[in-house]
What does this fold into?
Amino acid sequence: MKALSDIGLVGLAVMGENLILNMESKGFTVTAYNRTVNKVNAFIDGRAAGKNIRGASSIEELVQSLEKPRKIMLMVKAGQAVDDFIEQLIPHLDEGDIIIDGGNTHFPDTNRRTAYLESKGLLFIGAGVSGGEEGALTGPSIMPGGSPAAWEHVKPIFQSIAAKVEDGSACCEWVGENGAGHFVKMVHNGIEYGDMQLICEAYHIMKSLLGMSAKEMHEVFARWNEGELDSYLIEITRDILAYEEDGEALVDVILDTAGQKGTGKWTAVSALELGIPLTLIGEAVFSRCLSAQKDERVEAAKQLSGPSPVFDGDKEAFIEDLRQALIAAKIVSYAQGYVLMREAAKEHGWQLNYGGIAMMWRGGCIIRSIFLDDIREAFEAQSDLPNLLLSPFFKEKIESSQGAWRRVMAAAISNGIPAPAMTAALNYFDGYRCDRLPANLLQAQRDYFGAHTYERTDKPRGEFFHTNWTGRGGDTSSSTYNV
It folds into this structure.
């Protein structure tokens, strides 16, 4: 074992342990530390036995075991725990040493920590890590941002342990300054929320409208995973639907209340703050909230009536329509996520490589999908593409799918089956392609009750007008603002 370790890692939960083993398997010597020292000893004597991994029983021992510039990765709970460990580390570090936060941190915290540590002569990286337990061990997608000077020192380690795509490229590249890495990971998680909800809606329609069993749906998802919908989430849905316990599909006995850790909500809140219509992901977040109201829904089901689902059409044709609707809605999910990243880049001065982000998501992460290559190609063809829906590939794909999409949504609505994310995606598509929305009436209403002014179609943009609608309001108008 080398006299000094290449990197130290704090936090021996599932992700931390697996990242350490991944690093060691790629030729790096790692020091492991956990606040509970017994966990360190158990790891060193267990999964790390005989490997180039050393344990540290204190912060001082951890720091002293590392070669300079020291690189210390925190895999601890986001929030106060990260700040606490940073404060414990600072007194023992030298100028140019690097602290890395690999947790699901809210990007404003990464902005703050980067500035704080740079003011003390230290460097900071906020790295989004996606792929779960398996990805951490065999190759995750890593999205680093923070202090640019730190990247050259951690790049060999991160790109070695990251997932690789067909040409050998690592699913890890520098994202941008400050909280850019964690912002991109947040959007990744928001798209993940959307993808999962869309799949659940397709499952609900097949189950409640078509009366399909879990085994029949398993066969459909297996078929879908061989084509345009080939992705990690479709793949695991296929496997989940086939899993049985005592001869019964396990999915059928799982309680229908969904949890969440907050990253989807952060994505929706960021969209609201930046004025971006992230409607699909917003509905996915709210769907989890509604699912959590289980007892209330059970009671409401006894009191509120709706149509009983009845299907008398061509089942196979409808399943094909559902496949196309899922593709179209999935495209909208990514389109909205990329619009949010573009607006955030303007707001924070980040230089994001949108095609490169698609490639970081191509392997190792939860939303890896076959058409991420098409997203990369779209941005390589037009780096300033305002919306994925306007790229030739996705324009053709969504237009060819919209007939099926509308038939599925009509069937869901008329049969009382909720499909909030898929419907929100269609409404966004219809709104985005509409050259005149009814916001003219909305502006008239705002001006009527609040003198908020309006622009006119027969005058240049930027000129604002107020009408004394009642004859009693006078000429004074409110100040204008945009979000």
Summary: The mean pLDDT is 94. Strands lie at 7-10, 30-33, 53-56, 71-74, 98-101, 123-130, 141-146, 176-177, 244-245, 248-249.
